[in-house]
Amino acid sequence: MAANSSIDPIDIGTLRTLVLVYDLRSFSATAKRLDVNQSTISYAVERLRGALHDPLFVRNGNGVAATERCAALVGWARDMIGEIDGLASPVAFDPVTAQGSVTISCNYHERQTLIPQFSARLRAGAPQVRLVLLDAAGHGDVHLKQNQCDIVLGPVGVVGESFFRRHILTDHYVCVMDPANPLARGRIALSAYARAEHVFITHSGEWQPLYLAALKARKIEIAPVVSLPNHDSLERIIAGTRLVATIPHHLARAMRGGLHVAALPFRVPISIDMYWSARTAKSGLHKWARGLLAEVAKACDKGHAA
Amino acid sequence: MAANSSIDPIDIGTLRTLVLVYDLRSFSATAKRLDVNQSTISYAVERLRGALHDPLFVRNGNGVAATERCAALVGWARDMIGEIDGLASPVAFDPVTAQGSVTISCNYHERQTLIPQFSARLRAGAPQVRLVLLDAAGHGDVHLKQNQCDIVLGPVGVVGESFFRRHILTDHYVCVMDPANPLARGRIALSAYARAEHVFITHSGEWQPLYLAALKARKIEIAPVVSLPNHDSLERIIAGTRLVATIPHHLARAMRGGLHVAALPFRVPISIDMYWSARTAKSGLHKWARGLLAEVAKACDKGHAA
DNA sequence: TCTAGGCCATCGAAATAGTCGATGATCTTG
DNA sequence: CAAGATCATCGACTATTTCGATGGCCTAGA
Predict the structure, then answer these.
(1) What residues form DSSP beta bridges with A273?
(2) What does the record list as coiled-coil region(s) (chains A, B) (predicted)?
């Protein structure tokens, strides 16, 4: 036995043994209780003696007496073991006291539709958790890969199997226009749609709306007369003009102004999915947040169907 | 790897590895730093994963990213390691904040001579430490063996090699008597001493004063005219009489009354020693207390010589 | 797009550490 | 003093940990 060996090779089980020996004031009783050989306890105490630089237990007739320092060390070991056991077992997550942050990378669409209610419920349920939003801008997958966010939300189609995915709602494109627009009068024919004065949302060139691919498949080409980098001024741009924009239905609903919403002559579904990585897969906070997000999306979908 | 193995086989060194991997965000850098093989770190993290029920680190391009739970666990591990290191290394004992108690088994002699000053200095230096005194009554060795006391003080001569011993002062016997006693007039001859009216202290029959053995060796027999169980009323008993008592010099000095102190015609040294056991040998408090006791004894000895 | 280089996971062999059963030394008890 | 109980120690055995080599995956730069 080295005189002053380090505490490093002492494991938690050995600390438990120390406490038990202290309580029972007996090596052999401890061995019986732990169902091991008595010499195993002797050896364990021997290691503890070296690591803690104290005899810990000294022979005293039949049995052993604990040193002063041993008593102090046992008191501390008890505290530590309790704390360890609490931490080692999966934490019962409690949103009310939860700390930390949830970072979501998404686009204008989600920020206008899902996020407001999600934020409200997050703040109500977990007041100490911070919510951080990033603009995905077509790079949601990068944000996720580089751990810049915890969740990517949107119609991204992240590549690879390295991420978890959960579908949370399905949207589809609709057409919005000024109520005075002739197209607002009835069903819109495909040819009429093709001839309309279109506003395009370019997403700063980072992403192409899905309906364009659907049009291409139908060999229809439409050219924009107005191009906007995002949806934020769309409503004001269209109002009082003959412009039409093709945008997700949820987004159209979210526009409180007086634009007319019309069905498209073709249906293009938009699958809004939630992606996350192994890093946050088992986190209580993030599991809870993901559940909440799915719930909000479901409620949003219901409202849409009604 | 078992899915939910216990934390028991995790040792402190492995926790240190966890923290280092977290700080460096790299297994191989950790391996280099610790001068071990990279697979050793992989294996260590694997064990931690099982014990803590969390992936802890997930691959993230070149390098790894820590999970939320990992960050929390590392925070806790840091605290714990700091505490452990503080406890594992011999404690820097600070009397001012020290808690605990010091139990001393001794006799009237020491209680009258050394203990008062020891108590005063103990209370001044370590206000939160309790001092407990036991009456040795010839059983100091038993008190020590059975852990009923921390220190035995006195001329005991504890048997066996199982105890530590430190000599703290040497006393010797003197004779005390009323100042009017004829013997008080000059040096006392051995024959006159033998004929005197002796008071014996019997120590309740548990212990024989050492000077009796010295007299026996000189073939001198003295018979007591008064026998007392201890020294406490000796002064009042002798005052105004022709009685003489043979007692340790320090004790005689401690008697503030007007008794005459005379040297004996023979010198019998009394070695006052301090005994303790392995149980308290390394205790900071007890080491300090023993040092203090020796210091007090030394001062007492000086005062005696002067 | 492809390649070089870095990273962690995994494997079998070797080294290390822990456990066992038996025995020894010491103490208490009757 | 003998019987019974305690912890310490020993050699043999077993389990765990470490090593070196290899493989798969990712990034960065040509």
Answers:
(1) A154, A167
(2) none
Banded model confidence at residue B306, pLDDT cuts 50, 70, 90: very low
Backbone angles phi, psi at B100, to 5 degrees: 115, -165
Nearest to B8 among A16, A280, A282 (CB): A16
Instruction: Tell me: do A250 and A128 sit in the same domain.
Output: no
> Is residue A7, in this structure, part of any structural domain at all?
no
Q: Find, among B141, B102, B142, the residue nearest to B289 by Cα.
A: B102
The percentage of residues in chain B with a pLDDT greater than 70, rounded to a whole number, is 92
Extract the runs of DSSP E, i.e. beta strands, from A53-128.
Answer: 57-59, 64-66, 100-106
How far is A259 from A245, CA to CA, in rounded Å?
11
* Residue B3 pLDDT: 39
Choose among A297, A256, A255, A251: nearest CA to A273: A297
Residue of A nearest to B4 (CA): A89
Query: Measured between beta carbons, which residues in chain A are less than 8 angstroms from residue B286?
Result: 68
Between CA B242 and C1' C19 the distance (Å) reads 76
Q: Which residue is nearest to nucleotide C9 (CA to C1')?
A: B42
pLDDT digits (tens, 9 = 90+) for B141-183: 878 877 788 999 888 665 555 678 888 888 889 999 999 999 9
User: Which residue among A8, A69, A147 sits closest to B282, beta carbon to beta carbon?
Assistant: A69
User: Given this model, what pLDDT does residue B91 score?
Assistant: 66
pLDDT of residue A2: 35
Phi and psi angles of residue B99, each rounded to the nearest 5 degrees, phi first? -115, 170
Q: The domain that contains B255 carries what CATH number?
A: 3.40.190.10
- Domain residues for the domain of A247 are 172-269
Domains in chain B: how many in total? 3
